[in-house]
Amino acid sequence: MKRVRLMVAILAVSSVIGCTNMSAQQQGTVSGAAIGGVAGAGIASIAGGSAWTGLAIGAAAGGVAGNIKGSQR
Fold first, then answer.
1. Between the CA of residue 36 and those of 8, 19, 21, 56, 62, what are the distances in Å?
2. Pfam families per the record (predicted)?
């Protein structure tokens, strides 16, 4: 559980840094990847799997979804 909290903290800090000069599509990609990564790590750890694998899969899926959503703005 400590690993998940560390990953959440790292993602939260990294998602806030440097978003001011980004386009809407770039912001959507970063936000989607951060949210997806946190969700994936949480779901994987609850299900008894690897939190790192859940983080990677969730971040990839969230980044793609955020990119699509950001390009529609």
1. 11, 17, 22, 9, 4
2. Gly-zipper_YMGG
